[in-house]
Amino acid sequence: MKLLCRLFGKTRHAYYDRQWRVQDQGLKDEIVLQHVLDVREKQKRIGTLKLHFLLQEKLCAHHINIGRDYLFGLMREHGLHIRRRKRKAITTNSRHWMRKYNNLIVGLELDRPEQVWVSDITYIQLKQQWGYLSLITDAYSKQIMGWAFRKDLSAQGCIDALEMAIGKRKYPKNQLIHHSDRGAQYCSKKYVDLLISNNIAVSMTENGSPYENAIAERVNGILKSEFDLHSSKVGFRETTQKIRENIQTYNQLRPHASCDYLTPEQAHLKHGPLKKRWKPKWCKPNEKQLV
Questions:
Q1: Are 150 and 222 members of one domain?
Q2: Which residues contact 228 (CB under 8 A, 6 or more apart)?
Q3: Does 70 lie in the same domain as 127?
Q4: Which of 78, 108, 143 is the endpoint of a domain?
Q5: Which of 6, 117, 196, 212 has its CA 20 to 30 A from that of 283?
Q6: Is position 21 within any domain?
Q7: Within a domain: residue 256?
Q8: Are 126 and 238 in contact (CB under 8 A)?
């Protein structure tokens, strides 16, 4: 070894120092990956940015400090990065005779929970059929307030989700706006009457752009991509239980970059503007809805 080191113009100490660094780096990678897998056990498709935030405290106990780019590279090297799926099914039918309401949230600044609720329906492919998940999400805290999973696209699923959300309100005296697309489910008399009887203002998208209901679309995407709800290999009852568990994990454990990396349940206890920890991406003019 001494002769080889001399041939390359290096000392033996330099050689062994390099070996120690390689061993230390390998151990560091193993520790990081183990914590990544621990988080992914419950949040199977959580993104790398959220992982980077969640791992900071865990890695501090090992005196390990990693950057975002390091984690991206490590995840990519081990095939742990997430591939996004494209949306295929359409769940909104706005070609109907029922009354459509104006958009009340254009330019509205969110500064408290239960100021705006957003709602939407997404699909989940089961073994031999489709299931439809109705969601009510608080736009400020991103907490899922109500949900219902059914085998049909009737208004009843949306009504069930809304009734659950109303029952979970923490600030029932606050003025609240319900925002949705112009789907027949949200324009139905029974649904609108339920909103009005609970003093909830009715707001709807105007031009069909997904940016007009961006928060609801985003929550749908999180549940389907990070929590692997795009399709289900089990039956309706088992899928319903899986949805219940995943929504609980989403509300209680998943930090949101748009809520200062608080979980939805933590953010729902706050008041005042929440710090956004992400860089805004390009969007078309006049399509910004909520600040």
A1: yes
A2: 44, 45
A3: no
A4: 78
A5: 117
A6: yes
A7: yes
A8: no
Question: How far is Cα 21 from Cα 262, in angstroms, rounded to an integer?
Answer: 36
* 120 and 260 inside one domain: yes
Residues 127 and 202 in one domain: yes
Nearest to 161 by CA among 126, 122, 103, 124: 122
Scan for tokens 């041939």, then name that residue. 7
On whether the CB atoms of residues 210 and 136 are closer than 8 A, the answer is no
Domain-embedded: residue 1 = yes
Domain that holds residue 160: 116-269
Residue pair 26/65 in contact by the 8 Å Cβ criterion: no
pTM of the model: 0.70
Digitized pLDDT (tens) for each residue of the chain, 291 residues in all: 555 555 556 555 554 454 444 344 556 776 777 777 788 777 777 777 888 888 888 888 777 888 878 887 877 777 776 666 555 554 444 454 467 789 999 989 999 999 999 999 888 888 888 889 999 999 999 999 999 999 988 899 999 999 999 999 999 999 999 999 888 889 899 999 999 999 999 999 887 666 778 898 889 888 888 888 877 888 899 999 999 999 999 999 999 999 999 999 999 999 999 998 876 655 554 444 454
- Domain boundary among the residues 78, 95, 130 is at 78
Q: What is the DSSP string of 227-287?
A: S--SB-SS-HHHHHHHHHHHHHHHHHH--BGGGTTB-HHHHTT--SPPPP-SPPPP--TT-
3-class secondary structure, 11: coil
Task: Give Dmax (Cα) for the chain.
Answer: 89
Whether residue 122 is found in the same domain as residue 243: yes
Structure tokens at 256: 């949101």
CB 79 within 8 A of CB 64: no
Residue 70 lies in a domain: yes
257 in the same domain as 122: yes
DSSP string, 47-81: -HHHHHHHHHHHHHTTT----HHHHHHHHHHTT-S
